[in-house]
DNA sequence: CGTGCGCTTGATAATGGTCAAGACGCGTGG
DNA sequence: CCACGCGTCTTGACCATTATCAAGCGCACG
């Protein structure tokens, strides 16, 4: 784990920093799937002005923790994060994985405190969007307000997908669905839809899908035996996409 | 099923109607928990002006169906509704129950089409809030914009609660949690927290909690045997609230 | 008064959890 | 560079919870 930045720090509070890593929304490779989507370039500049970029999060560092004051929502620029809640009896429930271009932290709006924690699964660069600034800007820019409503609504429909998955589908179907979801998120970024590296552990997958590690592992083995997937630890290659879709047995 | 209104109609498209049933947001008993929360009375009048009230929905009538064009969100004035999705293989997943003062339909914003269906579990009066009007008003009234962001965020955190429940908790814990949730929603309306009528069937409960009817029924019997609940079909009386909370084993 | 739907209860079966042991890979330190 | 050790993953045997199948009850409604 090489430290390639001058400053150190714990990462819990992101410090604004001047090395801006050559990015702004206008030239960001992700702007067609991220928050700037649907904005005119003049408007993008206004959004740009409120966004704060800071040094990357190292693996296992927290972006925020359950109960922290809610100040901002965050866009993932690179790397992956997981969001999770800790239940009263100490168990962990992973509520989502966040890939580049995706927004997290919106569950903190309702109570002005984060309802979940977010932690980096690998080194991750983040754009911080202070929420009060975003609110003001939204009042001025109907298309931004609309887009942010849509983002929140998407979070709701995705959670409902997961609810259905947990409630109605077998272990095989759950794991297959997650693989398809990850595949389509790579595809959206113009990366390979059939060959990718899982950023999360088996434990995280199980925790997200309501299964134990052992069950997840067995499902992978079964898929491999059926020549649907080639699994080499975290490296995944989808060999039979129609077969995987059939196994998932769901639209999403 | 008695029709006590002059007009007939299928209820899928609500017709504005002039019998206004003596209500407006200013005098509505629910305004402290519903959308007008946190608005000044001048502002309430502006909100009032965009809200459309219409004849009540009869039991089993749909407010909207999955795939319908998204036009409005809805506030429940009286009665109860369930929201549900139909999976590819024809099974039904109940994603939520909506009691008076609660808002539904927000899952339609992201794709301009409703992502779920909503149906009345009993006769229900509804306030329809056209979304484009709400957006315009939100731009003008920061506190309304804020409040609506909060409502959506709450929907997200509630869905995450359900995800955790489905993923980590036993049948006993799930049913106990639902009973506590319903109890607190009655309490919020200043109704009895310990004695109430369930508006939904055992099938709906099972469908919501990821359990079969038989399991739900067995859990109720067990709770009754333990003198935690008195169950008479849909009439529920909570005899031992601490015991129920212990059984639920969750904060919510 | 009968029919049907919703609810309950019992017997049996299957899916996934638990416990246990071993393999593999990776980073650390000698 | 290799050896060690720990954490992650895999596999197997057994067990528990809940689903499935089946039957009967009771209330509401025609």
What does this structure look like?
The structure is a homodimer of 252-residue chains. With 252 residues, chain A is an alpha+beta fold. Chain A folds into 2 domains: 3-162, Sandwich (Jelly Rolls); 169-248, Arc Repressor Mutant, subunit A. Chain A is 37% helix and 19% strand. Chain A contains 7 helices and 11 strands. Chain A has helices spanning 41-50, 131-140, 142-168, 171-188, 202-209, 213-225, 241-248; strands at 52-53, 62-64, 72-78, 81-86, 92-98, 103-104, 117-120, 125-130, 195-197, 229-232, 235-238. Chain A has a 4-stranded antiparallel β-sheet. A 4-stranded antiparallel β-sheet of chain A has the order 2-7-4-5. In chain A, helix 4 packs across helix 7 (241-248). Residues 1-13 of chain A have low confidence and may be disordered. Chains A and B meet through helix 2 and helix 3 of A and helix 2 and helix 3 of B. The first copy, chain A, binds a DNA duplex (30 and 30 nucleotides) through helix 6.
Write a short abstract of this structure.
The structure is a homodimer of 252-residue chains. Chain A is α+β, with helices and mostly antiparallel strands. The first copy, chain A, has helices at 41-50, 131-140, 142-168, 171-188, 202-209, 213-225, 241-248; strands spanning 52-53, 62-64, 72-78, 81-86, 92-98, 103-104, 117-120, 125-130, 195-197, 229-232, 235-238.
């Amino acid at each position: 784990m090489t430290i390639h930045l001058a400053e150190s720090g714990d990462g819990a509070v992101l410090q604004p920093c001047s090395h801006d890593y050559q990015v702004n929304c206008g030239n960001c490779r992700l702007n067609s799937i991220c928050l700037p989507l649907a904005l005119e370039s003049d408007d993008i500049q206004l959004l740009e002005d409120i966004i704060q970029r800071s040094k990357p999060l190292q693996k296992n560092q927290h972006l925020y923790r359950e109960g922290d004051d809610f100040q901002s929502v965050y866009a993932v620029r690179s790397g992956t994060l997981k969001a999770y809640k800790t239940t009263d009896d100490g168990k962990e429930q992973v509520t989502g994985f966040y890939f580049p271009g995706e927004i997290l932290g919106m569950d903190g709006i309702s109570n002005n405190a984060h309802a979940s924690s977010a932690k980096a699964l690998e080194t991750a660069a983040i754009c911080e969007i202070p929420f009060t600034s975003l609110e003001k800007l939204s009042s001025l820019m109907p298309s931004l307000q609309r887009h942010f409503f849509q983002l929140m609504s998407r979070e709701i429909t995705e959670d409902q997908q997961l609810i259905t998955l947990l409630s109605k589908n077998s272990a095989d179907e759950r794991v297959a669905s997650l693989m398809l979801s990850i595949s389509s998120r790579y595809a959206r970024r113009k990366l390979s839809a059939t060959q990718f590296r899982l950023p999360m552990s088996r434990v995280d997958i199980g925790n997200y899908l309501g299964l134990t590690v052992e069950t997840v592992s067995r499902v992978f083995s079964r898929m491999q035996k059926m020549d649907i997937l080639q699994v080499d630890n975290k490296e995944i290659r989808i060999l039979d996409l129609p077969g995987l879709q059939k196994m998932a047995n769901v639209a999403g």
